[in-house]
Automatic annotation (TrEMBL):
Residues 277-343 form the Cas12f1-like TNB domain. In the C-terminal section; belongs to the transposase 35 family. GO terms for molecular function: DNA binding. GO terms for biological process: DNA recombination; transposition. Pfam families: Cas12f1-like_TNB, OrfB_IS605. This is Transposase, IS605 OrfB family, central region. Residues 153-255 form the Probable transposase IS891/IS1136/IS1341 domain.
Length: 372
């Protein structure tokens, strides 16, 4: 499985200057190449190289391989859209390959700059036991708010999937981030608090409009997103571990649409919710693969309207955002918990598992709310 590993660089002051200067010059070169490509309508890498390689190297003082990388970056960008001139950010990413960037052991990278190669210490979080031989292809050097990072694509071995003795269904939503068929609810309260805090702060700062307010605005942008990402990591990790400990597969809904039972009105929130959903699903999936938990997606149709006890489907079964009451058998419970059990049951139907779906899932503990 290919994963992207983000490593933070810790360059010395003069090293940082070299790297940042290189980025700036690299992107200046990209802009110049882009103008040539667009004027000549020439988007073929080799033809473009013939036309501008020597001039670019001379004008921007780029090492040979970086000039080639700049041409590649421009060509890649025009592959998506050729209708307008592309301009690149001053500190846009440099895409390195193994000829211009290599690793020295697990904690240093040797990086080509305008002034030759430099060896820079780096630190990364997870997969610290990774072998560098697992690095595949290109490495991006990126600059975020004064810090430099490398985005490294690594091939991580997947664990052989266990043979499941059951399924843990996971329902995802806006009010509750995730609810499992064990009855554990990860509520969005904390996330909503954080979102409200930031949106208030943003609107205050926008109305102030001074230089320092703008600086502050820039600083907080992305903080909410990072908080949500971190929360999704924590939740996904816990759910996957619970499945693993009890030899179960994980089932989620296919994310073809955002759940209509969200009560949130603002379009912006829905957008945020959509992004958060697919991120949580992605995290659940790769974390499952890493530790050998089978991962399945099921058809989401009516999972929130179906009674998990008798199977009766009716949109009026759902009396409120939180409550489910079956109009046929009278069964009542938390709506997301009911949906999570349906998701698990659907996955069980398609799996060669020697358990009775409904019987296995029909325990009825009080939902346990985990605060997020
Ligand atoms: Zn029922």
């Amino acid at each position: 499985m290919l994963l992207t590993l983000k490593a933070k660089l810790y360059p010395a002051v003069e090293q940082k200057k070299k790297l940042v200067d290189t980025m700036e010059q690299f992107n200046n070169a990209c802009n110049s190449i882009s103008k040539i490509a667009f004027e000549l309508k020439c988007y073929n890498k080799f033809k473009l190289q013939q036309k501008c390689y020597y001039d670019i190297r001379k004008e921007f003082n780029l090492p040979a391989q970086l000039a080639i990388r700049a041409i590649s970056k421009v060509v890649e960008s025009y592959k998506i859209d050729k209708t307008c001139l592309h301009l690149f950010d001053k500190f846009g990413a440099i895409v390195y390959d193994q000829r211009v960037l290599s690793f020295k052991g697990l904690d240093k990278a040797s990086i080509t700059t305008l002034e030759g190669r430099i060896v820079v210490p780096m630190v990364y979080g997870s997969y610290a036991k990774l072998k560098m031989s697992r690095i595949k292809g290109q490495v991006d050097l990126i600059y975020i708010k004064g810090d430099l990072y490398l985005c490294i694509v690594v091939d991580v071995p997947e664990e052989i999937p266990l043979t499941p003795e059951g399924v843990l269904g996971v329902d995802m939503g806006v009010v509750n981030i995730a609810t499992t068929s064990d009855g554990v609810i990860y509520s969005s309260d904390k996330c909503n608090e954080v979102r409200e805090h930031f949106s208030k702060l943003k609107s205050t700062l926008q109305s102030v409009g001074t230089k320092s307010a703008k600086r502050h605005l820039k600083k907080i942008s992305g903080k909410e997103r990072r908080f949500k990402t971190n929360t999704n990591h924590i939740i996904a990790k816990q759910i996957v571990q619970v499945a693993k400990d009890m030899n179960r597969a994980i089932a989620v809904e296919e994310l073809t649409h955002i759940r209509s039972r969200t009560t949130v009105k603002k379009a912006q929130r829905e957008q945020f919710g959509k992004w958060a959903f697919s991120q949580l699903k992605l995290f659940l999936e790769y974390k499952s693969k890493l530790i050998g938990v089978p991962f399945v997606s099921v058809n989401p149709r009516n999972t929130s309207r179906e009674c998990s006890v008798c199977g009766y489907i009716d949109k009026n079964n759902r009396t409120s955002q939180a409550e489910f009451k079956c109009l046929d058998c009278g069964h009542t419970e938390h709506a997301d918990y009911n949906a999570a059990k349906n998701i698990a049951a659907r996955a069980l139907v398609n799996m060669p598992i020697a358990v009775c779906p409904k019987g296995n899932l029909n325990r009825k503990p009080t939902p346990l709310v985990v605060g997020y």
